[in-house]
Write a structure and sequence with these properties.
Layout: E1 8-12, H1 15-18, H2 41-45, H3 68-82, E2 86-90, H4 93-96, H5 107-122, E3 126-132, H6 138-144, H7 151-166, E4 173-177, H8 187-191, H9 201-226, E5 231-237, E6 241-243, H10 248-270, H11 275-283, H12 292-300, E7 305-309, E8 314-316, E9 326-327, E10 333-334, H13 350-364, E11 368-372, H14 390-408, E12 414-420, E13 440-442, E14 454-456, H15 458-468
Parallel strand pairs: 1-2, 1-12, 2-3, 3-4, 4-5, 5-7, 6-8, 7-11, 11-12
Antiparallel strand pairs: 9-10, 13-14
Helix pairs in contact: 7-9, 9-12, 13-14
Amino acid sequence: MALPENFLWGGAIAANQAEGGMLAGNRGLSNIDLLPQGEHRMAIGKGLISNLQRDEKYYYPSEKAIDMYNHYLDDIKLLAEMGLKVFRLSISWTRIFPNGDDSQPNEEGLAFYERIFKELRKYHIEPLVTLAHFDVPVALIKKYGAWRNRKMIDAYTNYARTVFTRYKGLVKYWLTINEINILLHQPFVGGGLIFGEGENVAQLKYQVAHHQLLASALATKIAHEIDSENKVGCMLAGGSHYPYSCQPEDYLEAIHRDNGEYFFIDVQARGYYPNYALKKFERENIQIDITQADKEMLLANTVDFVSFSYYCSRTVSGLDENYASTTGNLFKSIKNPYLKSTQWGWQIDPLGLRSSLNMLYNRYQKPLFIVENGLGAKDEPDEQNYVVDDYRIEYTRQHIQAFKDAVEIDGVELMGYTTWGILDLVSASTGQMSKRYGFIYVDCDDQGRGSLRRVPKKSFYWYQKVIASNGEIL
């Protein structure tokens, strides 16, 4: 059998894309709550437009999402029926500390997640919990300028200590910061950053990165102190970079682009800043405020495992003229002629997942965990809201086979696999519901209209068999 018997099969969501209940139970506003659907979404996500209060001209999809806040009991029951071994979700920081750094936590928020974790335990489903999934309290953005201020580290670690303590014995798998490298591409989403005129953007991004890396190391330390059973991972927005051709310039660009994304994980998994990053800082006159104590903290508190998302590979060139045909949304990439694309232009590359697993395992020699992988597609439900999604089954089958080969043939150590959007939810990239990922259909449109009824798709029953056979029946 290719996979270990304790392999963690599961699915994943994020609070801001599924939970809803934006102001329910004394919850405060988070940056992601103010990311609207529509033409300004990308500019706001990049920190180019300030949007720190609700504006009636926008529709904010996270306000309601799929209302898991009020449906979690039925949702978890469906996950149990599917046979999940692990469920990845995030805690909303502002549900625990409405202003991010309140003197006392919000008991309603703490009790809400405790009920969820106990319900998961009832069905023998392990929670895999992300502390910050594109989640910065708006009050702290206004107070400190978000992660540009070192005081954010104290607020984050106090939040982490609070939930580690409250959920000891209920949660043992943790992720510190979701897709931490997204900070470089969408600074408001990843770090709550809004840039002022004339600011040194590169300097600020990497100073913020240092604060997040230090906070992650401190959280890892606290988690281990509170419960020796805790396992803490980092999280990368992953995907291999291919050279566009065998021109040496293209190959070198692929190396540089890999380094640019792996930078964060290099620090979290190895405990120190890599030489290529130090040279970049020197070359670009980026001066990071980093103390000797910071360096010691990073080195002493590396993560237990490395997790990542994988949706597609990316093709890059060292020559600008080769970018005539581009694809994807956040990462600059050339259309690969050997690959098919999704309806949103993301290129489908199962073998790229196997390549990514090999690269990450060879680089870090730590257990890996695929915590996001899935196909965003337009589903066509029948009158009963049942969806025949053979395209999603085929996508997932090919990616499962790829990671099985990485384990069985290449010797990669893989802890588990959580498909993205086990239920349909709001798309992080577009804010749409019509870009569906789930194995469970949720009756809700792009404007939040619908019954919110949950209906298992064909892929639900297929994945059920995959889990029951530990990946032997695909």
